[in-house]
Sequence to fold (112 residues):
Amino acid sequence: MPRIVIKSATGPFEVKTPKGDSVWICGCGLTDNPDGTCNGNHKKLNVAEEDPDKLYQYDDGERLEVAELVDEKDKDDEDEDDDEDDDDCCGKGCCGGGCGGGRGECCDDEKD
Fold:
């Protein structure tokens, strides 16, 4: 089954073996190594230059922008701002906060 796995690390993680040797584990998710060790693709593909507010997909070494990420808190703040600008709402909740959902209809013809 295909999956989308979102990685935010831009480089590998060092792990020490019991003998004290360093093993670098891929953090960006772009390694071709079957054991998950870093192969340097994060440097080759300039992962550090990615915009942290965007989602990228990599296909055959090409970076494609998929979407711009929206912080849910910021989105909720924007929604509250939209509600404050709506002076036509009766406040009874019949329309989801926009009296008729923008259709100019309301559950009550008169405003309170």
Summary: Residues 33 and 39 are 7 Å apart (CA to CA). Strands lie at 13-16, 22-25, 54-59, 62-68.
